[in-house]
Amino acid sequence: MSTEKGAPAGTRSEALRALADAHAAAIWRYVVHLTGDRAGADDVVQETLLRAWRTPAILEQGPEGTRSWLFTVARHLVIDEHRSARKRHEFPTDELPERAERDRTDALFESILVEEALAGIGLEHRAVIVHAYYGGKSIAEVARELDIPEGTVKSRLHYGLRALRLALQEKG
């Protein structure tokens, strides 16, 4: 197997290993100096060496040219990360922020309106609506609890909901 430049893959891997041994620690210290982030420095060094591996001509240069190329790539990676949208929108913190809760004002306002509207309809209609909708009971269960026929429950639900709708429309 050969590379783009005709050098055997094993030779290229050995050159990259030698490059990492010779320069990785110095690049890591340089990146830590620039960023103050030790974990981030590991990522930058890894990406710098990956780019060197993808650029076979770098592995064939002399040691001084290679070293300056590696430091330039590392510096550009740090700059790119600093300019990235992810970096601008993330803020490190020692504590997790409190979980944001939805504003329940609208729900509270709606429940007050429904309560007032329910108070404005007849007691028999209100009892059926409360048992069926707020109690989560079936027609048969409501009929048993209120001791009325199922047909009457259906009728009271129909007319009660109609009255409730009108009362809510009046309230806006």
From TrEMBL:
Keywords: DNA-binding, Sigma factor, Transcription, Transcription regulation
A Pfam family hit: Sigma70_r2
Residue ranges of domain RNA polymerase sigma-70 region in the record: 20-87, 124-165
InterPro entries registered for this protein in UniProt: RNA_pol_sigma-70-like, RNA_pol_sigma-70_dom, RNA_pol_sigma70_ECF_CS, RNA_pol_sigma70_r2, RNA_pol_sigma70_r4, RNA_pol_sigma_r2, RNA_pol_sigma_r3/r4-like, WH-like_DNA-bd_sf
Superkingdom to which the source organism belongs: Bacteria
Gene3D superfamilies associated with the record: 1.10.1740.10, Winged helix-like DNA-binding domain superfamily/Winged helix DNA-binding domain
Cited CDD domains: Sigma70_r4
Residue ranges the record marks as coiled coil: none
Family that this chain belongs to: Belongs to the sigma-70 factor family. ECF subfamily.
PANTHER family: ECF RNA POLYMERASE SIGMA FACTOR SIGL, RNA POLYMERASE ECF-TYPE SIGMA FACTO
Name by which UniProt lists this protein: RNA polymerase sigma factor
Species this protein is from: Pseudolysinimonas kribbensis
